[in-house]
Structures are given as C-alpha cells and as structure tokens.
Amino acid sequence: MKVCVIGGANIDITAVSGRQFRHGDSNPGRILISHGGVARNIAHNLALLGDEVQLLTVFGNDASGRQLAEGCEKAGIGIRYASFSESSPNSCFVSINDFTGEMLGGVSDMAAIDEMDASWLEERKEAILEADAVVADANLHPGAFKYLLGIVKAPLYLDAVSGPKAERMLGALVGLGLGRGRIHALKCNRAEASILAPLLPSLQRCYISLGSGGLQTITSDSVKLYSALPCKVRNTTGAGDALLAGIVHAGPDATVEDAAKTGLLCAKFAVESDSPVNENLKL
C-alpha cells in the first residue's frame, strides 16, 4: 500500500528517571537520543510493516536535520518530497519519563514545521494524490489542513499529537465544517478527545488511546473498548504513533475491530523498546 505521511520529524531526547521522579530536583537516570516526530515515527513503523511510504516534512538545514534525513532513507522512508529549512533548526522534542517508562511531560520546538503551509503542500500534491492512504499529524499549519481536505481523495487519517496541537487543528477544521465527512479516522488520547469533542460526530472512526487502559473506538453506531496487550513497558514515547501506523496498515477496508487489534499489537512492540520505534516490529 502506498502511504503519504505529512507532519513532523524530530530529534527526540528522552530522559528516564532511575527511581521515583522528584520534581524540582536532579534525578539520576538515563538520557536517550533518537530519531522521532509523530509523522516520522508513523512512517517508520509503516515502512517496517512493508508499506511504501513517502514522508512530507521539513528538516532543519543543520547537522541534526541532515542526520535525520539520512536515517529516514536508511529506514526505507521516501523523502523526495521533503525540504530543508533555511531559517529554523531541525525540530526537537524533549521528554521526561519516570522509572516505569510513563512520560511525565515534554517540550517541543517545531518552528520548522510551520513552513508546511498550503503553498508548500500544493507543490507536493502529486504525493498526496498518488497515495492509497494519507496520514497527517496536527503539527500542520491551519491553512495546510484546508488545502489537504480540499484535494485528498484517499482515506485520510489524522493524529492529534498533543492538547495544544489538537486545539489548533480543531480551529482549522471548524472553519471547514469539521471536515464534512472527509476524515476516515482520528487517533487521539483521552485529553485530546475532550478538546476535539465537537469533531467526533463528523468522523467515520475515532480511536482513543487510553494508555495501559487499552483503546476505545467510536463509530456512528458503536463504542467499544479493547484491552492493551500484556507487555513489559520500557518507554511509552512513540506508542501512539505505532498504534496509528498499525491502524493505517490494516487498511481502510478493515473492520474497526481488526484495525484496533493491529494497532494495539504495534503499540505493544513500541513500548517494549527504548526507542520510539521498535526495529523488530513485525506482524
């Protein structure tokens, strides 16, 4: 399946406390640096699953950006539609996790991604129109959402990314009549779902990640809960990205149940890895 993934590509810096985290104090632990970003992680997981992927993103024209672009190519992610920013450094996400692997919080610097406006996407519409499925994360500029919804023909999957990004995406979609049924599926967590509540009735499918509590699915005629698979958690960063990659890989014709189960299996692989993407992913 040809998949076009649009959004962020970051350098991820993850600090993991070696014991119960003490706020306002220095905590001994481990610091891990890896390639990340919601869209990049989704693309990487899809490539591992055997899909043909093109990543539409903006790298920084710096050492981190060039390293990240090279890493994408080595992972089998197509980047011929990506660009390099001349004004912003490569995007970066810093997170702090407690000793159980659960994220306590994070800070993202995504200035480069703001260059992905409607005109930037218009220059790359070939990749969007040729895809069997299109995935976009909420890092996109509001104008880019308007353009994307106006041209996309393939099933469109959205990832809310975070609370602030969900608010921005909702603002863009409200101005477009909440997508008017053009969004095949949305993946978000519980907090993001509360922000995006006005959008939910217009969606064909919504997948709400509940972390260790599993996955809730919402369609026009059903609400179901699926349990998380047993696993040994090492790191939760990237689990939601793997979840959506599995849902997309299952295909738009898959039942909600089959897509949910594929997503949960991919998420299990992710949390059992120190990195946001588990290179051993397989179904």
Describe this structure in words.
It is a single chain. With 283 residues, this protein is an alpha/beta fold. It has a single domain, classed as UDP-N-acetylmuramoyl-L-alanine:D-glutamate ligase (3-Layer(aba) Sandwich). The protein is built from nine helices and 14 strands. It has helices at residues 38-48, 63-74, 118-122, 125-130, 142-151, 163-174, 190-195, 239-250, 256-271; strands at 2-6, 10-17, 29-36, 52-56, 58-60, 83-85, 92-97, 103-109, 133-137, 156-159, 185-189, 205-209, 215-218, 223-226. The chain has an eight-stranded mixed sheet. Strands 3-2-7-8 form a four-stranded mixed sheet. It has a two-stranded parallel sheet with strand order 5-6. The model has no long low-confidence stretch (mean pLDDT 93).
How do the helices and strands line up, and which of them pair or pack?
Blueprint: E1 2-6, E2 10-17, E3 29-36, H1 38-48, E4 52-56, E5 58-60, H2 63-74, E6 83-85, E7 92-97, E8 103-109, H3 118-122, H4 125-130, E9 133-137, H5 142-151, E10 156-159, H6 163-174, E11 185-189, H7 190-195, E12 205-209, E13 215-218, E14 223-226, H8 239-250, H9 256-271
Parallel strand pairs: 1-4, 1-9, 2-7, 5-6, 9-10, 10-11, 11-12
Antiparallel strand pairs: 2-3, 7-8, 12-13, 13-14
Helix pairs in contact: 1-8, 5-6, 8-9
